[in-house]
Specification:
- The chain is of the alpha+beta class.
- The chain has 3 domains: about 80 residues, Uridine Diphospho-n-acetylenolpyruvylglucosamine Reductase, domain 2 (2-Layer Sandwich); about 110 residues, Uridine Diphospho-n-acetylenolpyruvylglucosamine Reductase, domain 3 (2-Layer Sandwich); about 80 residues, Uridine Diphospho-n-acetylenolpyruvylglucosamine Reductase, domain 1.
- About 30% of the residues lie in helices and about 30% in strands.
- It has 8 helices and 19 strands.
- It has a 5-stranded antiparallel sheet, sandwiched between helices. It has a 4-stranded mixed sheet with strand order 1-2-5-3, with helices on one face. A 4-stranded antiparallel sheet has the order 15-18-17-16.
- Helix 1 packs antiparallel against helix 2 and helix 3 packs antiparallel against helix 6.
- The structure holds flavin-adenine dinucleotide (FAD).
Length: about 300
């Protein structure tokens, strides 16, 4: 846990939007897990650079979160500083076919703004309930991934005073970003399209998600990565896991690759259920599933 000196230093640098012992469950879509020793909402690049440098200097572990839609927080919480970007990091600027979106921009807002401006390429991302920063880290997507439309990414590497530009390599749900790099903005290259047709496409994709995903209960999206040439959901269903429960966590009846929180689940429940599912799939089909969700550590 943090010493009094560490707390005082964080207080003087991170500014007024700093809290200690902040519950993190409400900041994630699964709604499980314990508190962060410290939690800061940071709205400017200057403040971000200063806060991360301080954390490095004082050996305070730190982590960045977006909307927590691909994130599990352990029940014991996080022993260091959790940072969420706000303010300056939510701006979207469109210049011709080039779009610069701050890392805290909700993916849905980016998709809507692009469609309104008659720009095509981001429609496939609509309905992914995260931020641009989280999407870049995860290379989030469906039939199109964010990495397919990224021109370059602005990052701040903890301990370094200036932002730099990078073009990470992207693969299925992964990017080659340095673990110490915080995405501060991304530049996307889109193509001209018809605004009305683009908006109809956004609506169609959202309706499809509503019909196929258990959005009425807290969840973290797909629990497992799809193995090459296969679908985790199909393997989980074939192993007979739909409806399995541990505590308040359940394998969704609607979509087998979703674990839902039926109320009162702990992170331990979710991870124990995921482990049971993995064992069952291994036994039934010989495939070793890999977690897609990140566990804050
Ligand atoms: C209902 C539902 C449906 C989903 N559907 C999809 C889908 O179709 N396709 C898909 O790919 N994903 C999907 N997801 C998962 C999730 O929405 C995406 O992975 C999303 O990109 C995560 O963004 P986030 O802001 O919530 O990141 P978080 O969950 O907060 O964080 C995820 C990871 O990114 C890191 N991170 C966050 N922000 C930054 C930053 N600024 N700089 C560096 N690292 C950062 C975190 O440290 C963490 O390691 C779904 C989730 C839900 C709940």
């Amino acid at each position: 846990m943090l010493s009094e000196a560490q707390r005082a230093a964080l207080r003087s640098t991170a500014g007024k939007n700093l809290e200690f012992d902040m519950p993190l469950a409400p900041k994630t879509s699964m709604k499980v897990g314990g508190p962060a020793a410290a939690y800061a909402e940071i709205s400017s690049i200057v403040n971000l650079a200063a806060t991360l440098s301080l954390a490095q200097q004082l050996s305070i572990p730190w982590a960045i979160i977006g909307f927590g839609s691909n994130l599990l927080v352990r029940d014991e919480g996080y022993p260091g500083l959790v940072v969420r970007l706000v303010g300056d990091f939510t701006k979207v600027v469109i210049n011709g076919t080039r779009v610069r979106a701050g890392a805290a921009t909700p993916i849905v807002s980016l998709c809507r703004e692009a469609a309104l401006a008659g720009l095509s390429g981001a429609e496939a991302l609509v309905g992914i309930p995260g931020t641009i920063g989280g999407a870049v880290r995860m290379n989030a997507g469906t039939d199109v991934e964010i990495g397919d439309i990224i021109k370059r990414v602005e990052v701040l590497v903890a301990g370094e005073p200036l932002q730099t530009f990078t073009t990470p390599e992207f693969s299925y749900r992964r990017s080659s970003l340095d673990q110490r790099a915080v995405v501060t903005a991304a530049e996307l290259e889109l193509t001209p399209g018809d605004p009305a047709a683009l908006q109809a496409e956004l609506k169609r994709r959202i309706a499809r998600r509503n019909a196929t995903q258990p959005l009425e209960l807290p969840n973290s999206g797909s629990m497992f990565r799809n193995p090459r040439g296969n679908h985790a959901g199909r393997l989980i269903e074939a192993a007979g896991c739909k409806g399995w429960e541990v505590g308040g966590a359940q394998v969704s009846e609607k979509h087998a690759n979703f674990i839902v929180n039926r109320g009162g689940a702990t992170c331990a429940d979710v991870l124990a259920l995921a482990a049971r599912v993995r064992e069952a799939v291994k036994e039934k089909s010989g495939v070793q599933l890999e977690l897609e969700v990140h566990v804050l550590s």
